[in-house]
Amino acid sequence: MKKIRKIILLSLVFGLLLTFHTIPVKADAGTDEIAVTELNQIMTLLVDCDAKERPEEAAETVINFKAGSPVWIIGQTQDGWYEVSYQNLKGYIPVECVTELQVEVDEQGAMGLKEAGLDEEMEALETENEMVIEEIERQHGEQRRSYIWIAVIGVLVVGIFATGMIATIKSNKDKKENSGK
After folding, report:
1. pTM for this one?
2. 110 vs 123: CA distance, rounded Å
């Protein structure tokens, strides 16, 4: 009976110690969620601007933009930053660095993006893509021709080797026939 009381008493003391002992826990600063209001629009940069990893001036730069460049704004924070996206990278730029995009509407109601310079950029990209495609097609054509030449040379080598073997066999056969007479 005394052993049971000692076990209960030790359990109570141990339980009380665990109750009053606190374990310090540090919060990871990188897990803070940033409240962003969704926008999804194109704007133009007024000045050269660096997109930061977090909406803070001291944060690391992830994207560099030049003045006049169009930027894809995907959201806005409450403390004056736009969230931007460029080639699978996301960053934050100050609101005062950009201006709203002026979209032209022509007589048929179609919208143009001339102020952002996107028409010229798209034309340049299309021209560049056409040149890349032509170069790739040219390289594929050269590769096919080289495969054909490899096959032709292979057939010629095999033919020469076979001709030499046949000539050698025939020559040995003729020698045996001539020596047997």
Report:
1. 0.42
2. 18
| Rounded-to-integer distance, Cα 40 and Cα 56, Å | 21
The CATH superfamily label for domain 33-105 reads: SH3 Domains (2.30.30.40)
Token duo for residue 148: 């054909």
Residues 75, 76, 78, CA angle at the centre, nearest 5°? 150
87-137 pLDDT per residue, tens: 888 999 999 988 876 554 455 554 555 545 667 778 888 888 899 899 999
Give me the percent of the chain exceeding a pLDDT of 70. Answer: 75
Q: Give the long-range contacts of residues 18-25, CB within 8 A, separation 24 or more.
A: none
Closest CA to 34 of 119, 92, 107, 108: 92
Are 107 and 117 in contact by the 8 Å Cβ rule? The answer is no
φ, ψ for residue 28, nearest 5 deg: -80, 120
What would the two tokens of residue 37 be? 């209001």
* Domain chopping of the chain, boundaries: 33-105
